[in-house]
C-alpha cells in the first residue's frame, strides 16, 4: 500500500516512469516523463524538508480532497480532475476509523484504489466531521494560547504586543492594591460590585517584605464603611444561602459526608465586611411627591442614590433604554405623579443612612490623628510607599474617621452633624462634610457669554440654595441640616499659557462688572452661592504634589496631540523667583504695560478694520444679530488683550508638524467660531486639578442642571459618565474627592504620559491599572440623555424630547417645536440630573432675545446688551446717507423690532460728540433707549428648547415664578435703586 502523503503524485510507485510522448501536450493531457520526473524530485525534496522542526505538525494533519469536476485521464479525456484540498487532523481523516470505533470496523481499502489514495472510504458526513473537528481543535488551541499570553502580559504589564497601545500603568500591583484599600477605607466605594482582577492577596497592603505573612483562616478581611453593616437577620439568611449552595454543590459532585469539593485555592479568599450605617430605602411611590403637592419635593438632606441599583435600570451595556431609566429616576425623586404599575420594590434606588453612631468609638479619632491623615492626603505617595505596619495603622485610622463623620450623636446639633470647614472651602455651611464638599466647578476662558450665564441660572433654579430667605440672613440657623452647594466659576482671563499679572484679580472683577451677562451674579443675593475665582495655571499646578516638575514638560497634551511653549516654563520660573526674592514686580509690570500700550496703538487700526469688515457683513452667515454681536465681542477681546502686560502675549503654540497649526482653530459651522483651542485642552487638565485640590464636581460650561443633586452629593464615590456607546469616560461631568488615591493614580499616570488628560486617555489609565470601579462610569442617561439618539442608537424608543442631532436643542425642528412652549422645563428630559448640549458656542440660546432679561433690578446691563445688538445691526445695515448726520432729527431705532427703525435717522446724542460720531459708538447712548413698549408680535412664534429653558430661568430671577421645587426668590433687604 502506498504511503499517504499530503502532496499529489503523478504515479503509483516511485519506480514507475510514464512513457515519453512526442505528441503536443494539450491542456488536460498527462505530463511528459521529464516533467513528471522533475515534479517527483521537487516533492521528494519537500518531504525531506518537512522533517525539520515542524515535522510534528505535519504528522498531525492529513489532506482530504473533495472532487469538484469529473475529468478524463488521457489526451482525449476531456480535461483533468479538479479538487479542493483541506488539511484535517489525521485521526479524523475519512480514510481512517473514528477513534471510538473498534478495529473490526475499520474501513477496507480496495487494491484497485485510485491514484489519490486519501479519498478511500470518504463520504460527505465523514468529511464534514473531519473539517468541523479540526476547526474546533484549532479554535481551542488559539483560545488557550491567548489566555496564556494574556495572563503573562497581565503579570508583566511592561511588555507590549506589536500594533497595540503601550501600557500606561506606572504603579506596581502592591500600590494598586493600596489605592483600592485606601479608597474603600475612606468610604469612596459604596458599592456591592465585585473588583475583578484586583489581587487582595498581600496582607496589610503589601509593599514590604514583612507584608507577606499568611492571611488568617485563608481569607483576607476587608472592611468597607461605605456599605451598610449586616444585621443579625441578614447574617442568618446569608448562612442559610451559603449552606444551601454547599449542599447543592455536594449533590452535583456526588460527594457524601461533607468531603472537600476541590483542592484549596492558591489565592486567599476576600471577605468584604460592610461596617457602615444601615440604609433605609424610600418607599415608592414617594410620599409627598407630585401626587400630594403641585411641586416636586426636595430630596431629604441625607438622601443618597444607590448607583448600583441605578446601573441595573440604566446601563447601556446591559441593553437598558434611556427612556426607562429616566422614568425610574423620576419616580424615586417624586418629580411626577407615577402611573399605576403595581409594587415598585424593584425600582427603589434612594436610601437614607441611619444616624445611630454604631461602630464609632467614643470621640472618634484624635485631632492629632486627623492632622496626620490630612498631611498624608496632601501627598498620597507617602501612603503608598509606607511600610506594611504603618499603612495598616493609617487604613485603620482612615476607616475610623470615615465612620465618625457618617453621623455620631455626640457630634450633632438637633440630630444633624456639625463639621469644621476645611481651609480650602472656609465658607461651607456647618452641615457640609469637609471630606465631601458640595462644590460645582466651571472653567471659562474669554468674555462671559450667554452659555455660562444660562448654566449659572440653571444652578440657581434647581439647587437647594435658600434663596427664599432674606438677603444677608443666615438660613442655617433655622435649618440645621442645610448644606448649600456653591458654584465656583474659574475665569481664565487671557490665553491659556499666559501668566496673570498681579492686577489680574482686579481686572477680572472689573470685566465681570461691565459684562451684562456676568454682572447680575455679583449681586449680594448670590454672594453665598456663586463665586468667581481667577484661574492661575502656575499656582494651580504648583498646588498638586503629583505635578512636581511640570515646568520642565510640554504643558498641553490632548489625546497625544501636544502643545508646547518654548519659553513658558522658564518664564514661570523667573517670575516666581523674582516674586520670592522680593523684587519690585509691580514696577516691571507698569513698564510692560507701557510697552504693551504702544503695541495696542498699532493694534487698534487692525481691530477697527476687522470690526468694520464684520459690520459690513463680509463674514456673513447665520443670524445677523448673533454675527454682529460676536464681531463686537471679538473686537473688544482683541483690544483688551493687546493692552495687557507682555505676559499675555506669550501664547503657546502646537509643536511643529508638517503643516503650521494655528493656535486659534476655526471649528464648527459658523465663521465666527474662533476660540482658544489651547484653553479647551487646558480644561481637560483643569477639571482634575480642581477636583483633586478642592473636591466636588466639575461641569463643562455647556451643561444645564435639571434637578437637585443632593442624592448624588451623598453618594461618596467618584464618577464620570459613559462616552455614548463606547466604554470610555466623558469627563464633562466629573466627581472626585479632595486628595483621593484614585486622583493620585490619575496624576501620576498623566505625568508619565506627557500630561495627557484627555478623557479617552484617562480611560486607558484606569483600565490598565484595573481601577475603573473607583471611578464609576455612569450611564449617559443621567447627564447626557440625547447622546445615544444623536448617534443612531435607541431610536426605536427615544426619550422626551427626541433629538436626532444636538443642534435640535437650539434649532428645534418644526414637527416637534410645539413642545417647548406647551411643556416647558417640566417636559425636558425629566429625571436626568443635567443636559450636555456639546459646544455650539456660536449659536445664541434665544436669538430673538439674545440678552440677559432679568427685570428692572438689572436693567442697566440689559440696556447695554440690547444697545450693542442695535448698534451692530445698524452698522451692518447703515441708513441712507442723508440721515447719517449727528444733527438730524427723528425717532431713531425701534427697540421693539430690533434691526428696524421708525425713521432712518438715529437719535441725536445728548452730550456733544466729535464730528463724524455715530450713535452707538459710546455705550452711554444705550441708556437713553426705552424698551417698555415691546409687543408680542415682535417675538418669535415658535421657540426652541434652548430659548424656553433660558426664559424659564430668567422668570425665576425676576420673581415671576417659583423654581422647580416651588420656592420663590426673595429680594428683601435689597438696596433700592442699585443697578448692577
From TrEMBL:
Coiled coil: none annotated. Residues 600-617, 912-921 have a biased composition (Basic and acidic residues). The chain crosses the membrane at residues 127-153. Keywords: Membrane, Transmembrane, Transmembrane helix. InterPro entries: Nucleotide-diphossugar_trans, WD_repeat_DCAF13/WDSOF1. GO terms for biological process: maturation of SSU-rRNA from tricistronic rRNA transcript (SSU-rRNA, 5.8S rRNA, LSU-rRNA). GO terms for cellular component: small-subunit processome. Residues 11-24 have a biased composition (Low complexity). Residues 1-30, 402-431, 572-623, 877-921 are annotated as: Disordered. Residues 402-411, 884-894 have a biased composition (Polar residues). Residues 581-598 have a biased composition (Acidic residues). This is Glycosyltransferase family 32 protein.
